[in-house]
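W.,

You were right to be curious about this one. When I first looked at the sequence I had no strong expectations either way, so I just let the prediction run and decided to look at it fresh. Below is the sequence, 287 residues in total, followed by the output.
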Amino acid sequence: MSGRGARSLGSTAFPIPFTHTRQTQPAPQRQDRSNVLQIRNLTKIYEDGTVALHDISFEVKDGEFLVIIGLSGSGKSTLLRCINRLIEPTSGQVIWDDVDITAANQGELRRIRRQIGMIFQHFNLVKRLPVLTNVLTGRLGYVSTWRSILGRWPREDRERAFRNLELVGIAEKAYNRADELSGGQQQRVGIARALMQEPRLLLADEPVASLDPATSHSVMKYIEQLNREMGVTVLCSLHFLSLARTYATRIIALKAGEIVFDGDPLDIDDRRFKEIYGEEAVEVEIR
């Protein structure tokens, strides 16, 4: 795995079990890490007048595991998709590694996106294609169009795809159709696909929203390993505060498109929980 601060998983044992021991405190962060991502006065207004994001500003340090929480419609998915410009912001800036993504032309954007992997809530796999082919699509930013259309992937890319499937514990499913896999297995294919980009930044948009609690922890544990063992910076949106507390080194809470909390996961007490989710909300523990 290439990229600044990245290193091999080495002897890490996979697959990871479907249980997770909740941490009593977030993993310690080095104080000398530089800011690799800056969000400056970001606003998104949709054509129907909906204000999804309003003047959002924050910075992310290299190697952070930042979880974004909030109710449905609070702006979590819009924020993540504005970062890699799957959605075009209305105004503001997204600065990645001193490059203004919001000002990049299409060629520059293609090069920037090579460094930014994404995991989707509904997996975004081509269901009729084999798992291996779905994983290989993570290299589309690196290979010519004709190679990808003809399925003539370089040998080193195929070898990398098998290694990534081994990392997430489903190498034996390489030649199965994607729609033959369970939801948790399909999301692991999504993680392997994101790894094909050799990303320095991973955006995970509600990666466990479609999964049961046990499988949710399994998938989150893989993402945590990428952060801890490979040094990949992670921005992950989640519904459940209990999951955020377990995996995040920092939490940002959105409400109606604005930041209402930015800080340590352990600082979200019952009062702050109700400020984020509403007075009638009851915290649900995902075990």
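Here's what jumped out at me. The CA atoms of residues 8 and 209 lie 29 Å apart. And, maybe more interesting for your project: Residues 1-31 have pLDDT under 50 and may be disordered.

Coffee later to discuss?

I.
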